[in-house]
Amino acid sequence: MSNPNTNHFDFEALRSNLEYDDPFTKEFLVLLKKELDVSLSILREQFEAQNMKEIKATAHRIKGTALNGCCNELATLAATLEIATHFKQEIISSLVLQIAAEIEIIKTLIP
Q1: What span, in angstroms and rounded, lies between the C-alpha atoms of 96 and 42?
Q2: pLDDT of 74
Q3: Residues 6+ apart with CB under 8 A from 106
Q4: What is the CATH number for 64?
Q5: Mean pLDDT, consecutive 10-residue segments, the chain of 111 residues?
Q6: Residue 18, domain extent
Q7: Residue 4: per-residue pLDDT
Q8: What would the 3-class secondary structure string for the chain be?
Q9: Which terminus of the chain is more exposed, N or C, with fewer CB under 10 A?
Q10: Radius of gyration of the chain from Cα atoms?
């Protein structure tokens, strides 16, 4: 039976991708947490400014970080935000909140 948390953060997949280099994996995880926090802060600022072009760019950045970090649900949410075409307050707000919640879940799962 698979671990339901692996859709949020798949630690074993990440270790495999990093060729089981545990010291590097530890460094990567520190950088992953920092990048998620920074990107979320930027995303929130862009949302407040209603800057859709920059929201999409940051969503792309988050998606890349999520894919590299084996955070599949976050990658899906970021991809959804990235393809949004207009700033529709309710929709964009919901996606930003979902991304923020997903990042908090990931941070609890990172060893």
Answers
A1: 11
A2: 98
A3: 8, 9, 36, 69, 71, 74
A4: 1.20.120.160
A5: 77 97 97 98 97 97 98 98 95 97 96 90
A6: 4-109
A7: 65
A8: CCCHHHHCCCHHHHHHHCCCCHHHHHHHHHHHHHHHHHHHHHHHHHHHHCCHHHHHHHHHHHHHHHHHCCCHHHHHHHHHHHCCCCCCHHHHHHHHHHHHHHHHHHHHHCC
A9: N
A10: 14
